[in-house]
Amino acid sequence: MAEIRPFRALYYNPSRIPELGNVVTQPYDKISTEMQARYYRSSPYNLVRVIRGQVHSEDNPQNNVYLRASRSFRDWIDDGILISDSKPAIYPYVQEYEAPGWPASKKVRRGFIALCRLEDYSAKVIHPHEQTLSAPKSDRLELLKVTRAHFGQIFVLYSDSAGLVDSLLAERTPPQPWEQVTDEYQTVHTVWRIAEPQAIHQIVAAMADKKLVIADGHHRYETALAYRDSCRSRAASDLPAEYVMMTFVRMETDGLTILPTHRLVRGLPAFDWSDFLFQARSIFEVEEFPAQDVTNDWASLFLERLAQAGLRGPAFGAYAGRGRLALLRLRSDYGLESALNSLPSTLRRIDVLLLHRLILEHILRIDPQAVRDERNLTYHRDFLAAAAAIAQGEAQLCLLLNPTPVQAVRDNAFAGLTLPQKSTDFYPKLLTGLAIYWLDNPAGL
After folding, report:
1. Which listed residue, 50, 54, 117, 258, has the most CB atoms within 10 A of its CB?
2. What is the enclosing helix (H) or strand (E) of 69?
3. Is the pLDDT of residue 166 over 70?
4. Which residue has the higher pLDDT, 232 or 1?
């Protein structure tokens, strides 16, 4: 099953970088233009220069943006900004955070960072739960080729009802943290270091029978697979390329938070709110709401109403600006099984899939390929940001969802079934730059 191993992490030298918060980042795909500019200003050694370098006007097909990333990375190693751990280790990683919601709640998510041998999905050891897009994989592959390093962690879930692995980590974790930093969302990230061989052996052995579900990082995992296969075709052996860096989190923890990712629809040739609601009534009970100013309290109250409706069955929000807001609840007399008879039964009650099939495809007539290519969709975690995009004419409709339950993620992944892209948003994100897996580390794995 899962083959876990320790490694010598590359990390920021604390004697050269006393403020770790100035150099680590959110995952590359969560970095907005404003965040990228802020990261650039925070330090000349901020990892954004490597994982998401700025495109210059003189860039050409020789991929200067990737070559600049490679030069920065190697210069930082040569200058002692980034240094290697002296021994292979496993790194317990704890995040203390306030979960967004109504009301907000404080949570703790515990896991550990280590390497895992790459496995094809067909081996049924590592399971995806979402479909992927081609463009992000192409970009990450180019960066991996020139740097030979994994900077971000793939977030995976494993089942351990007895909590054996967490107990071993708690027993073996030293009192003094290895790294600690508070990010821009006020999440406290603390990393420890376990290098004692017997402790590592026990943790590795306890993980040996685990199946893994990718929670976050599908594109990076598939990029690592593609790079592994490329290396296999060119050389007899490239052991470091057979592994990828992951953060492993127990499924049964109460520290998991999944946020919904709302859909913004744009580019429809003739969208009409009244016609949309008319068609929706054949599938949903439609409750319209009076016009309101778009405020944080207003958005929170509606999302709470949506959550309450979701306890009784699939439910969605629809907002088209200028006070046009409606709650859509699946009608009890709607023939869901016959309408979606091509889908396995475990998928027919998952909100995000129903939204794609019943609203995007059936009501709005958006082709599934257009959805995959993101020709008509953008994605927003925040309702207020989505409402602002509609007000600015960047979209015509916002479709609001409840979060996908982790049990549905697990059960469908183990069954070999994937959900649409952006079906889950695990919160908080794993910081990029706390540990780096450098395939060419002269000290070895």
Report:
1. 50
2. helix 64-78
3. yes
4. 232
Question: If you average pLDDT over residues 365-393, what whole number do you get?
Answer: 91
Q: Which residue's entry shows tokens 């599908």?
A: 218
CB 241 within 8 A of CB 231: yes
Domains, the chain, in order of start with CATH, read: 4-257+427-438 (no CATH), 261-402 (3.30.1760)
How far apart are the two ends of the chain, measured CA to CA in Å? 20
For residue 388, give both structure tokens: 């602002």
Q: How confident is the model at residue 57 (pLDDT cuts 50, 70, 90)?
A: low
> Among 9, 31, 15, which Cα is nearest to 115's?
9
| 3-state SS record for 232-263 | HHHCCCCHHHHEEEEEEEECCCCCCEEECCEE
Alpha helices, DSSP H only, in 244-347?
273-280, 296-310, 336-339
Q: How far is CA 173 from CA 165, 169, 178, in A?
A: 12, 6, 10
Question: From CA 258, how far away is CA 402, in angstroms rounded?
Answer: 10
Instruction: Flag whether pLDDT at 56 surpasses 70.
Output: no
| Sequence-separated (6 or more) residues with CB below 8 Å from residue 346 | 408, 411, 412, 415, 417
Model confidence, pTM: 0.92
Question: In this model, does residue 55 exceed pLDDT 70?
Answer: no
Tell me the C-alpha to C-alpha distance, in Å, between residue 36 and each of 40, 147, 150, 267. 6, 20, 19, 28
Q: Which residue do the tokens 């949570």 mark? A: 107
Burial class of 122 by CB neighbour count within 10 A (0 to 12, 13 to 18, 19+): exposed
Rounded mean pLDDT of 374-396?
92
How far from 187 is each of 98, 100, 344, CA to CA, in Å? 7, 12, 38
d(CA 124, CA 185): 35
Instruction: Give Cα separations from 244 to 50, 222, 228, 240, 294 (angstroms).
Output: 18, 11, 10, 8, 44
Name the region of 67 (left: φ>0; alpha: ψ -120 to 50; beta: rest).
Answer: alpha
Task: Give the per-residue pLDDT at 421.
Answer: 85
Burial class (CB in 10 A: 0-12, 13-18, 19+), 286: middle
Q: Are strands 126-127 and 212-216 parallel, antiparallel or unpaired?
A: parallel
Angle between helices 134-147 and 218-234 (to 10 degrees): 50
pLDDT score at 101: 72
